[in-house]
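Lab notebook page, bench 4
Experiment: in silico fold of construct C2
Operator: M.H.
Input chain length: 140 residues
Purpose: comparison with the prior construct
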Amino acid sequence: MLKLNNKIFKLLLGCVIFSMVIISGAVYAKSLSIDLTSKDRNANEVAKREIVIWKIKDKIITSDKDKEKLAKDLYSWSDDDLSKEYKDNFTVTTDENGVASLGNLSTGTYYARVADNGKVKIFPFVFTVDEKNQNDVTIM
């Protein structure tokens, strides 16, 4: 009987440890956000703004110059053309503080457009996500 109880104990312990690993991964996963406020913009100007985001590449563009070039190249594309070319896209809305939660994104390069609200225009921008080193996106 002792051997049976020992096996059951080990099985239960294994299940508990496995559950803890799964739950900790879900609880501690980093959620990215975009902050549209800056020294020149206050929350009132960027609150409740829609941001459409397209995943452009699985690879990460690290150079600021290359990110700027990509943003300029895609500027003339319509939203429909972007969505046809880049199927992986979604829309988020900033909260009353001008911050939008992105959740967990896969590694890659993303292009974003902020809807105009007549208060302040924000030029489309490119940002990257590295699953190993995720940082929030602050737009200057």
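Observations: The longest helix spans residues 2-27. Residues 12-16, 18-29 have pLDDT under 50 and may be disordered.
Next step: discuss at group meeting.
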